[in-house]
Amino acid sequence: xxxxxxxVADALDAVPPLRGAHLLIGLPEHKVSFEGGGHxxxxxxxxxxxxxxxxxxxxxxxxxxxxxxxxxxxxxxxxGERSRKPERLAALQRRLGIDGADVSHIRYQLLxxxxxxxxxxxxxxxxxxxxxxxxxxxxxxxxxxxxxxxFGDVMGVTVREGGxxxxxxxxxxxxxxxxxxxxxxxxxxxxxAV
Length: 194
What we know:
This protein is α/β, with parallel strands linked by helices.
């Protein structure tokens, strides 16, 4: 009815500013470009949600055992290599309200996926932004969960599984960070959805 998997709806409902959110539109493989050039951030799903009279921009990164991209220190160029990566990283950090923070140990994908939720909030006039990591294989995603905890630390929050938390960082709109574990769809769930 709300256009959201039950576990995602439950996680949103646990946070009063997101309670009752429903999906207006969902765009798979939605690309968001950033300052500093480079490849756009390709969200597994970007959704525009409505909560009351407000819109929420939500970027979703789905995982089922694969890593959350490179760690920033491995992503950055080597000595003498020409690249605009440092410029792009600085732009992402400004958008996330973490200018000057040590992000060398953070997975780059967490930074640009979260920044894409914020950028699209500005573009679509959304009052809030959210990033969601949706695990479809929690055991295989244990390393991603640990990486997500470190990302939460940089963003000033203690993340929790099955829910969202609001980051205190100074961002263009309030930012919520979440993780849920979902069952992969089987034929019964697929047929119920159609």
